[in-house]
Amino acid sequence: MKLWKKIFICTLIVFEVFFVPSSIYLINSSFKSNLKEEISSAISEQRRFTALIQSNMVFFKLRDGDNVAYNLNKEELRLFINTYLSNFKNENVYVEVTDENGDSIFNNLSESLPKKRPELYLNSNKLQYIVRDVNDKIYLFIASNLKLQNSNYKFCYIKDVSRIYANRTYLFGILLKLNIIIVVSLIVVMIVLSKFIVKPINSMIKSTQKIAEGNFSERVYVPKDYEIGLLAENFNYMAGIIEDKIEELRRSADDKQRFIDDLTHEIRTPLTSIIGYADFLRTAKYDKKTLFSSLTYIYDEGRRLQKLSSKLMQLTILRKEEFSMKEQSVENLVLRVKRAMKYKLEEKDILLKVSYDKITYSMELELITILITNLIDNAIKASKSGDEVWLKIYKHEGKLLFEVIDKGVGIPKGDVEKVMEPFYMVDKARERANNGAGIGLALCKKIVDIHKGEIYIISKLKEGTNVKVII
C-alpha cells in the first residue's frame, strides 16, 4: 500500500474514532439534560396542580362552613380538572384520575394505555414517574396520591415528550449527514494533501532509481524547512558520497589497469631484449667484444627485472600488512640510510650531506628507511658525478619532516604531479640506464600514506628537486 493511502486511511480512522463518539456523547448529553429539565418542570406542574385541587377543596369547605358536609362527586371533579386544563393552555399535557378501586374518573388522553401501570403502585405520599412509548408517541407519566375529603385518588400527570426524542433522532440524522459530508470532503482534501506530502518522497524514489541505473550525479531538490527537506538534504549528501566513492573506485580501477598495462610493458621490453640477445648468442657467430656487450645487456636487463620484482613485492606487502609504530631514534635511522646508500654514492661520486635533530619519533623504521633510500636513490640518478645531495631530518610543530634536496636535472612542471604514479618515468632513457622501473616514488607515497603523512615535490628543470615528507 502506498504511503499517501496509509496517511489517508489513518487520518480517516482517527477522525471517525474521535469525531463520531464525541458527537454522539454531546447529543446524548444534550438529550439527557433536556429530558431531565422536562421531568423537573412536569413534577413541579403536577405538584402545583394537586395543590390547587386541594386548596379549592379547602375553599369550598370554608365557604359552606365547617359543619356543612361537602361531597365532591365525579362530575364536579371532571369539571374542575377541565377548567384547570383550559386555563393551562398546554396541548401536550394530559391528566388521569382514578379512584381507590382503579376505576377511571378522568382521562383526557385519547391514546389507549397499557394494562400494566407500575407508576400507579404508590406508597403513601411518594411520587413516581415513568417514560413510555404509547403508539407512535412518547409520554412522561407522573403519579401521586391525592386525598380529597375522605376519598383517596391517584392523580397522574401526563406530558408528551416526543419532541425531545424526535430532536435527538433529528440530531443523529444531522450527524450522519454531516459525517458523510465531512468524510467526502476529507477524502478529497487528504488525497490532495497526502500526494502533496509524499511528492518529495516520490521524487526521492525516482532519484534512487536513477542512481541505481548508474546516474550518480542525480540529486533531489526539496525545500529544507521541514523533515522531508532534511531527509532530502541527507539523501543528497549520501548520493554525493556514493558518487565520490564510485569515482574513487573508477580511478582505482583505471590506475590498476594502467598499472597492469605498464607492468606488462616494463616486463616485455627487457624480456624481448634478453631473449633476442640470448638467441643471437645461441645461433650466430660473434667475437669477444660482441659477446661481452651482449652479456652485459642481458645482465643489465636481468638486474632491472630483479629490481622491478623487488619493488613490486614491497608494494604488495605494503598493501596487505598492518604496521605498528614505535619510538625510533632519528640518529639510528640516519646511520641505516648512510650504510644502505654508501656504495651507490661512491659509485657515482656523490656526496651526501646530512643534518638532523637528535630526537626519537613514532615510526616504522624499516619503511622509513626504504622511503629515504628511495628518495636519495632518485636524487643520485638525477645528479651528475661530483654533485651533492642533502638529507635534512627535523621536528617542526610536533611533526617529523624529511627533506631530500639535489641540484640535478629537475622535473618538468607538467610531470611533477605524475611522478608518483607507478611506472611513470620523466626520462625513460635515463631510468633504463640506471635500471629504473618508475615505481620508487609510488612506493614512497604508499609508505607516507601508512604513516598518515604528506609528500610534496618542488622542482625546476635543470635546477634540482626538493622532496619534502611530513609524518
Outline the structure in words.
With 471 residues, the chain is an alpha+beta fold. It folds into three domains: 167 residues, Beta-Lactamase (2-Layer Sandwich); 106 residues; 149 residues, 2-Layer Sandwich (Heat Shock Protein 90). The protein has nine helices and twelve strands. The strands form three sheets. The protein has a five-stranded antiparallel sheet with strand order 2-1-5-4-3, with helices on one face. Strands 7-9-10-12-11 form a five-stranded mixed sheet, with helices on one face. Strand 9 and strand 10 form a beta hairpin. It starts with a helix and ends with a strand.
Question: What sort of overall outline do the alpha carbons produce when their principal axes are compared?
Answer: rod-shaped
- Percent of residues in helices: 55-70%
Report the mean per-residue pLDDT as an integer.
Answer: 79
Query: What is the distance, rounded to the nearest whole angstrom, between the alpha carbons of the first and last residues?
Result: 57 Å
Which structural category fits the helices and strands? alpha+beta
CATH structural fold name of the largest domain: Beta-Lactamase
Main sheet specs: 5 strands, antiparallel
Q: Which series of helices and strands comes N to C?
A: HHEEEEEHHHEHEEHEEHHEE
**What's the level 1 CATH class of the largest domain?**
Alpha Beta
Uncertain stretches: 428-438
Give the number of helices: 9
Strand content: 15-25%
Rg result: 57 Å
Into how many domains do the coordinates divide?
Answer: 3
Strands, total number? 12
CATH architecture of the largest domain: 2-Layer Sandwich
Going across the major beta sheet, what is the strand order? Answer: 2-1-5-4-3
Pfam family, one: HATPase_c
GO molecular function, one term: phosphorelay sensor kinase activity
Protein name: histidine kinase
Organism: Clostridium felsineum
